[in-house]
Amino acid sequence: MFILVLLIFLVTGCGRLQFFSSGESALQEAKDQKSVVIGFANEKPYAYQEDGKVTGEAVEIAKKIFKNQGITNIKPVLTDFGSLIPGLKAGRFDVITAGMYITPERCKQVAFANPEYNIGEGLAVQKGNPKDIHSYKDVANQPDTTIAVMKGAIEESYMKDSGVKENQIKFVADQPTAVALLNSGRVDGVTMTGPSLLAILQSAKAKNVSVVEDFKQPIIDGKEIKGIGAAAFRPEDKDFVKIYNDGLAQMKESGELYDTIHPFGFTKKDLPGDETAEEICKQ
């Protein structure tokens, strides 16, 4: 018995202690301990560290929803964006609060809560836009053009679906690295969500970088792409998803959702529609 308990402790020690033999769900354990472990990737404006604290659109929504459930202690775990889903599945954290897009491929691995926002993509280039880039198609048409993107981010698939080759994509661990590469001229552009791009450029003070104001949103399978972001849980944690969705619906109805995300650069047009995560995953 001692060996079994020790093994359980070692396996789960890097995240939440989960003694599955008790039959207690992750939600009930979080309520009992009044704490929840969140995974984030230091990406403005969704979830990032500032002055030693973790904040951002996704984090602040989560804090309010969990607080209403009596879960007041938020324990953040910083990781690369590409490691978020593996970390969730491995039990390093209870929920991903990183503004992650809902996609069919990710829906096979995690259980998304309902949408928190609905936004478009953004592109920044060297000042003056010397390569005249206004879309991912423009990148594809110039084989010597290189764009930096966070590893695991949805923009990789958007670019590839638009004809951009693998060797035109420079993968980076985080946004500041991407902007630093562009500012020094080692890549021709960086792409990420619109709010994220504006937020990182405001803080980066990159003098040689400018936003492509007339960037054309990617069109995949005949449809203009809009990013729909949400929190993500393990598929077995259905009760966690339910209380999160209930709390999110209350925030949306009362106007608190807009009040929470607006300070991070989101506008009313970025608010989610009535489509659920389940409906989006079936598309």
Automatic annotation (TrEMBL):
The lineage of its organism: Bacteria, Bacillati, Bacillota, Bacilli, Bacillales. Keywords: Signal. It holds the Pfam family SBP_bac_3. GO terms for molecular function: ectoine binding. SUPFAM superfamilies: Periplasmic binding protein-like II. This is Polar amino acid transport system substrate-binding protein. InterPro entries: Ectoine_EhuB, Solute-binding_3/MltF_N. NCBIfam families: ectoine_ehuB (TIGR02995). It comes from the Bacteria. One of its GO terms (biological process) is ectoine transmembrane transport. Residues 35-268 form the Solute-binding protein family 3/N-terminal domain.
